[in-house]
Amino acid sequence: MSATAVGSPTRRSERDREQKGSGLAIMSVLASRRGWLVVAVVAMVVLAIGSVHQNQPSSAARISHLDSLIKCPSCVDLSIAQSDAPIAVGLRAEVVAWVHQGLSDARIEQLVVARFGEQALLVPSGTGADVLLWAVPLSVIGSAGVLLAGYLWRRRRLEASP
């Protein structure tokens, strides 16, 4: 039997060194700003791809989606899909009729907003103050991430200098 058999200590130590080498290579890439930039870009691309939704072709799926977006007028923060209030039941029937008439989702949302006001939808419209509700927290989190990265980079640079 040879000294470098599959289960021998020599073969295992070579394999361990190879695994440590690949781990150190990954760590050295992540130790640089360029490595973190690549990780951040890949994460943003993955999130952007994951956030794209395809159109829901079936009318049942469209009805379900609209029912979950439209707020029950007589309830507190419930959609018409979650509520059994008479007005929610009637509004669900209207949504079904509008979908079967061929109205687009945007047009149905406009009809509901025209009747019940801007707060009739559970999801912000993407205009005016609604944009601030989404943009401010995201910008605060992004700014905090940039500040933390700058702090860690400066700290690492100071530790590396003699």
- CATH architecture grouping of the largest domain: Orthogonal Bundle
As a whole number of angstroms, the C-alpha radius of gyration is: 28 Å
Which fold name fills CATH's third level, the topology of the largest domain?
A: Helicase, Ruva Protein, domain 3
- The tally of domains stands at 2
Unreliable runs = none
**Basic shape:** elongated
Summarize the structure.
By secondary structure, the protein is mostly helical.
What would you note in describing this structure?
Helix content is 69%, strand content 0%. The protein is mostly helical. The chain folds into 2 domains: 1-52, no CATH class; 59-120, Helicase, Ruva Protein, domain 3. Helix 3 packs antiparallel against helix 4 (86-101). The longest helix is centred in the last third of the chain and has 32 residues, at 129-160. The mean pLDDT is 80.
List the helices and strands and how they pair.
Elements: H1 9-30, H2 33-51, H3 59-69, H4 86-101, H5 105-116, H6 129-160
Helix pairs in contact: 3-4
Notable features of this structure?
single chain, 162 residues, mainly alpha, Helicase, Ruva Protein, domain 3, 2 domains, 6 helices
